[in-house]
Design goal:
Blueprint lengths: L7 H15 L1 H7 L6 H14 L1
Length: 51
């Protein structure tokens, strides 16, 4: 949704920032391919160590 007097580039930047904050792109990238249960478990353990 463009605000009055707002450029397309600025609106796109706002949309990307909002999607990044909500984690939408990360979720889409994770579900592009099937992930075996063992790979999912390994990824979750790796993510928990990172935090």
């Amino acid at each position: 949704m463009l605000k009055r007097g707002e450029g397309v580039e600025k609106a796109l930047r706002r949309l990307k920032k909002k999607m990044d904050k909500e984690g939408i792109m990360k979720h889409i990238k994770q579900h592009r391919h099937y992930e075996k249960p063992s790979q999912k478990k390994r990824r979750k353990m790796k993510d928990s160590r990172r935090r």
